[in-house]
Amino acid sequence: MKKERLLGCLAVFASLGLTACKEVKTVEKQVESEPSNEVVDAVARVGEVWLLEEDLTVYRERRPGLSREKALQELIQEEAIAQAALREKLDQDAETKAAWRATLASRFLSQAEAIAQPDEEQLRESWEAQNERWRVPAQARVAAIRRRFTEAEVESVRESLSLAAREFRELPADENRKGFGALAARFSDEPNTRYQGGTLGWVSSDSEHLLLPPQVTEAIFAEPEAGLLEPVVGEGEGWLILIEELKAESERSFDEVRDQLEREWISSNAQSAKEQQIEAAVQQVTVEIFGESASPDREEKAAPVVPALPN
Prior knowledge:
- The protein is of the alpha+beta class.
- It has helices at residues 2-33, 53-62, 68-87, 94-109, 111-115, 120-129, 154-170, 182-187, 214-221, 254-283; strands at residues 42-46, 49-52, 135-136, 139-148, 199-204, 227-228, 232-233, 237-247, 250-251.
- The strands form three sheets. Strands 4, 5, 6, 7 and 8 form a five-stranded antiparallel β-sheet that branches. A two-stranded antiparallel ribbon has the order 1-2.
- It is elongated and about 95 Å long.
- The N and C termini lie far apart (129 Å).
- Residues 291-311 are annotated as: Disordered.
- It comes from Roseibacillus persicicus.
- One of its GO terms (molecular function) is peptidyl-prolyl cis-trans isomerase activity.
- Keywords: Isomerase, Rotamase.
């Protein structure tokens, strides 16, 4: 009896030992299948391919608005389909190779922009070298009363413009008044502005105005401050000008144009860097051209002449 009990206990221990061994092997398999240190940020595994957190991030940038779970599901499907395409050897298709080649080339050349990053000293030198470019010409915000006349009407126009000037000076201050206000409708014969107080907007000292003749523009910027000018009478027309605001000539500071200079610098130097990268890439490989393309400088063959039919 004791012998039978002893044998039964041994059988139970043996059974437990086998179960323990199986559990150890299962755990070992799980450990082996877990991501190694190199793929510690893996989010999924599709076949033999690890999908990393950064892959999911890029995918979600391409598909904004997707939840993390939905994006991961679509990413896994995309990877599975891509692997199916590889099994079908679709990566050897000429169109696929062309797209892949163009993508790689574009990514490689995009490094040129990172190379072309100027420092503050270079940007400041560029700003100083283009000093004239940053000059801001004098500007004036003006209103005008315009009168056209014939030779016989010169004096009457002078008197009319002087009367308009006198009446304007007598007007009470009104911050809501535009230019000459109602006086423009009475005295001006300029159809585009007479009902807007004669307002012309901003006039620049370095460019011709669509409406004002050069002698009037010169008179405006000869004034040191805003105010009413004396009437200007030229050939066939007279002007009464009100300078509402005057801005002296100035220069845009380095801080104002720094970002613009940086963009221009990168654009200019990135192109040069790209050309250097292309040249270096071509020099690192052996290029052989076969067939008719091997002689690009050869003379073009003359077109075959079709023999004429006999008469």
